Amino acid sequence: MPRDDVAKGEARSQILTTVRDWVQKEVEPLSMKYERDNIYPQELIDQMAAMGLFGMNVPEEYGGLDLDYTTFAMVFEEVAKGWMAVTGPLGTHHIMTYIVRNYGTEEQKRRFLPRMARGEMRCGLGLTEPNAGTDNQAMTTVARRDGEEYVVNGTKMFITNGMNGHAVALLAKTNPNATPPHRGISCFIAEKGAGFSVGRELDKLGYRGVDTVELIFQDYRCPADNLVGGVEGQGFRQVMSALEAGRINIAARAVGVATAAFERAVKYAQQRKTFGRPIGEHQAVQLMLADMYTKLQAARLLTYDAARKKDSGERVDMETGMAKLYASEVCAQIAMDAMRIHGGYGYIKDLPLERYYRDAPLMIIGEGTNEILRTVIARQLLQRYKV
Q1: 205-250 per-position pLDDT tens digit
Q2: Which of 174, 217, 234, 379 is deepest in the core (most CB within 10 A)?
Q3: 3-118 — its CATH code?
Q4: Active site residues
């Protein structure tokens, strides 16, 4: 094995060991209470910043860790095993760091990436609107140039870390009459200030403890220097590329939650007895466990394959779509099966099984619904197997 690969493997192992130990010592003891009472885990966010996790995909020259995407996925998997909600501020932040790293001007990189890497500037993605989710080109938020600023008006919805974060990658139409509409959409580095306010905080089924809010922009003035790349009309392409990386982290979260559910189920199956023997000796339970683990491993391998191809620079919208689609569906199935194996104990809040079940649907919906991802995958297949 080449020395570089050995060094990379050792560095990955060290990072994952650090994260795993932190999850066990710090995250898991707080997760039940914080999730139940919907408490924002500020101390855990600060600890992730101290570990450098907000700079995972930031180049070293700007103060980041510059991890490969396989390690990136593994980190998300480990954190999600302890408490999936904690990955929220981390995941949405990395969408914006990806955008600035890959599409920002050199001045923007120097100005923002070091702060983002240190977790001093924690970010989100201002994409979805009340009437524009999957159909992002239907957004109505508008940014009008006024001298050295853009004046932004509009509303964004379902924004993770919108209340406790400091900035968002804001999508707005700089040319509302463009055809097709995506050519008129631009991306801005929007820091909080006058005209940028938080509206409703949304009460969610799962993914609790982390804020998901409505953002309101009313004559918000964004410096023209904060237009990503300094060019209008590129925002849709920039964000769609970033969402490829986002789907890797969503798939990895799903694998993490599914792993936690499976591990609890397989242990419980060896401890719980019915009719004089552990339920794990009953064939019906054995078949469930076999299917759960097979699906889990397939989801993990799809996720790592997408991450590896992202590292190689390949186009991976199909691969990340498949990973996110399959891992999220499998996560929901495994969470349900783990509850069934636990019986009544799986349904009560004394154990985290019901939390896994409530958290799982987020991965099905977030970063592109599974329904739209199926169309993305199908279109790519028809191009690759064109006759």
Answers
A1: 999 999 999 999 999 999 999 999 999 999 999 999 999 999 999 9
A2: 217
A3: 1.10.540.10
A4: 367
